[in-house]
Amino acid sequence: MDRLKKKIVEEGKVLSPSVIKVDAFLNHQIDPVLMKEIGEEFASRFKELGITKVLTLESSGIAPAQMTALSLGVPAIFARKKKSLTMKDHLYTSKVHSFTKQETNEISISKDFMTEDDHVLILDDFLANGQAAKGLIDLIEQSGASIAGVAIVIEKGFQDGGRLLRRQGIKVESLATLSSLEDSTITFETQEVSS
Ligand code: G4P
Ligand code: NA
Ligand code: NA
Prior knowledge:
Blueprint: H1 2-11, E1 13-16, E2 19-21, H2 32-46, E3 53-57, H3 62-72, E4 76-79, E5 91-98, E6 103-110, E7 119-127, H4 131-143, E8 146-156, H5 161-167, E9 172-180, E10 187-188
Helix pairs in contact: 2-3
This protein binds guanosine-5',3'-tetraphosphate and sodium ion (2 copies).
Keywords: Cytoplasm, Glycosyltransferase, Purine salvage, Transferase
Protein name: Xanthine phosphoribosyltransferase
InterPro entries: PRTase-like, PRTase_dom, Pur/Pyrimidine_PRTase, Xanthine_PRibTrfase
């Protein structure tokens, strides 16, 4: 997706050889026009699969998940990282360890919103080591629902998550895949079909 890549290059800030800050359009301030295009692009890549729900993790997955769900005509659900006041039990829960942040979060969704009849698209803003996706897959499996695929806005191709998921036979679609952030330079994988 050329518009997304242009945004990453023009507004992203390389913080280290493995981390890029995209607070200007995705992780803090949100570009709604870009989110709409992201939603339409994911919908076109997954529309034939009979998806009934889009599942993400709060907070930064919500904006692109919401627009993708809108384009697919289905609800979006975000797994919570903290127990809410009104959501104490009747939950599926899993643990997600972040190597980047060196912390473990318990994530949860209500049993009310996912059943064995659902076919679920997992969506997240970043794919790094794949731990968030793994936790979301665990929640889906607990509910008896099936996994349609994984939609990622920015994949860090130099980390293991994408390989781990694809090796399990899961369809993973990333809109921009970074091959390197070395020397403060943003490099994309080139074999992607740009759209
Ligand atoms: P993993 O799930 O693929 O294993 O990822 P990891 O633990 O490394 O990621 C932890 C958090 O850091 C996630 O956000 C993820 O989106 C974010 N993240 C990972 N790599 C980058 C990066 O290079 N740049 C930016 N901007 N974020 C990155 P989170 O803690 O869930 O926060 P939220 O933004 O969703 O609230
Ligand atoms: Na994030
Ligand atoms: Na995230």
